[in-house]
Amino acid sequence: xxxxxxxxxxxxxxxxxxxxxxxxxxxxxxxxxxxxxxxxxxxxxxxxxxxxxxxxxxxxxxxxxxxxxxxxxxxxxxxxxxxxxxxxxxxxxxxxxxxxxxxxxxxxxxxxxxxxxxxxxxxxxxxxxxxxxxxxxxxxxxxxxxxxxxxxxxxxxxxxxxxxxxxxxxxxxxxxxxxxxxxxxxxxxxxxxxxxxxxxxxxxxxxxxxxxxxxxxxxxxxxxxxxxx
Length: 229
Fold this sequence. Notes:
Structural class: alpha/beta
Strand order of the largest sheet: 3-2-1-4-9-6-10
Largest sheet: 7 strands, mixed
Strand content: 15-25%
Number of helices: 5
Helix content: 10-25%
Number of strands: 11
Radius of gyration: 17 Å
């Protein structure tokens, strides 16, 4: 069994896929696997994925015959994953060197169901560190305590599923799949379910995942009916 499965949904991210996939190669270990889910891209993404899949150890390409959205793309990756731990990376973001090894090491030490991490928000040349609103770092906590109080920013207000690592037991029997009926904001519902299902979690001070803002194709930038979800 691989130690870690990394699920990477990609759809028409040809301008960014090169840096995303290169960061996977830099982080690769023999006990890591990478599920590259091409959600029926129509640009250069499929060619870039195929080229890098030959260079990244234990990389597998999963292709959708029609565009099904990021929720199903992540679900396809989850269903194919064999690792003891799972994590996610969007197709236009990237990892710093050593990030995945640090994630796995923290989970092995803490023994919790999931852990959330800081991330670096990238807007052009600007870099800003964003931190989960957890009360403490590096200690095991009750996920339900990460929901309340309602009038304060809490862990369910940090809906970045790729800023974390999750134990395989959370996904057993078809649990913890993303809601495919949502075209955006699927991560927010998933984070709520995570805090209600899991028994233990922790917050980690790692700065190795880089979140690219201002991408024209990002659902956070699109102003159409999908935002109503």
